[in-house]
Design a protein that fits this description.
Layout (H helix, E strand, L loop, with lengths): L2 H20 L3 E7 L4 E7 L3 H7 L6
Antiparallel strand pairs: 1-2
């Protein structure tokens, strides 16, 4: 992986950690090295709110 891309992935993860520690938002960041894929999920009202209200789930 190129250094520039690695730095950007680390910056995204760092920002997610910072936001999770000060906001009610919940952000999950996943990196799959075998496919060089990054996935970020943002729950604006927090994970607990989403889980309790099943917001976003399809039945």
């Amino acid at each position: 992986m190129k250094k520039e891309i690695k730095e950007k992935v680390m910056k995204i993860m760092d920002l997610a950690l910072e936001i999770n520690s000060r906001e009610k938002n919940t952000i999950f960041v996943e990196f799959s090295g075998h496919t060089n894929e990054i996935c970020a999920k943002v729950y604006e009202k927090g994970w607990e709110y989403w889980r309790e209200n099943e917001e976003g789930r399809k039945n």
